[in-house]
Amino acid sequence: MRDLSGHRTALGFLYLFVHALTLLGAAVLAYATWILAHISTGRATRLPVWEGLPVQAMMGFTLFVLVLAIAGLSVGLALVRGRRVSKGTALVLSILALPSFPVGTVMGIYSLWFFGQEGWDSEPETTAWAT
Question: What is the mean pLDDT of the chain?
Fold first, then answer.
């Protein structure tokens, strides 16, 4: 069995980087949704954001991206800290990241390779900062 602790840490930081960018994208989508809500009504006053179908669709997509970002950040943090990771969650996130060229594609392929290796779930050596 190979020692995959270096790959585990590298993949964890890659997850953190990619999903921090995804979280930033969710914030931009939320702002764009807010702008769309104001433009679609033609009013500059406060209005409920659930008035139109385009706004509802953007809100749903924004929430989906936000959930992906939070799940990816938690997987990345668990990988870096040497904690247990859900293989299913990591594989779903890696498959969904494949179309996001180039960084998401690299993370997706690397993640699929890592979780396909024998011994990926073995207990990594813990360090003082990982406890």
Answer: 84
